[in-house]
Amino acid sequence: MNIFDILGPVMVGPSSSHTAGAVRIGLMGRKLLGCMPLKARICMHGSFAATGVGHGTDKAIVAGLLGMEPDDVRIPESFKMAGEKGLEFTFEETTLKGAHPNSVQMVLEDGQHRKLTVQASSLGGGRIMLNKINDVEVNCTCENPTLIIHNMDQPGYVAEVASMLFQKSVNVANMSLHRKKRGGYAVMIIETDQKIPKESIEWLEQKEGILKVTYIDIGGNR
């Protein structure tokens, strides 16, 4: 057993699930959007809805959206800081079918008319699961370096990405493909053993038919 599993994460707040995990969910949403959102509608489910305010879950999620880590001492001041930085946010309770008790759905908007819906859950010990992106189920923890590719559902994209990773000597730890319908919008989730070079990500972003590329490396640069 890892000592992290016994002691939990280094964090500010009373609960690894309701605070540390919530910060990471907010931070994940920011990363997927590509910037700090200007508007956020945050829908709390289950235990998050019932006891989240008492545990500081609301402040933690906003802190993550602002780019804070779970050990940031400014987390209790996140609402004030959001006002200073121009982040408008609202909270509401919701019921998410089949979701983990510690779950949240965030509808995020930036200043470029981009809108993103993210559903995620806090699993305990500061660990999180990304459940949905724009209603497409993904279910990944992003604990390894993770590449999230949004592309048109057409032949060839998986082969091109796999070939690029092979050329860069990057080993695939887990890979999953998700789509809403045949020939429509698809999401490719690739977790790797090694970091993915910046130039490879930039190369993917220029490929026709690839709509968006997000690289998440929790152990390194965000």
UniProtKB/TrEMBL annotation:
GO terms for molecular function: 4 iron, 4 sulfur cluster binding; L-serine ammonia-lyase activity; metal ion binding. It catalyses: L-serine = pyruvate + NH4(+). InterPro entries: ACT-like_dom_sf, ACT_dom, ASB_dom_sf, Fe-S_L-Ser, Fe-S_L-Ser_bsu, Ser_deHydtase_bsu. It comes from Robinsoniella peoriensis. Belongs to the iron-sulfur dependent L-serine dehydratase family. PANTHER family: L-SERINE DEHYDRATASE, L-SERINE DEHYDRATASE, BETA CHAIN-RELATED. Its cofactor is [4Fe-4S] cluster. NCBIfam families: sda_beta. Pathway: Carbohydrate biosynthesis; gluconeogenesis. Keywords: 4Fe-4S, Gluconeogenesis, Iron, Iron-sulfur, Lyase, Metal-binding. SUPFAM superfamilies: ACT-like (SSF55021), Serine metabolism enzymes domain (SSF143548). GO terms for biological process: gluconeogenesis. The keyword Iron applies. It comes from the Bacteria. The gene is sdhB. This is L-serine deaminase. Residues 146-218 form the ACT domain.
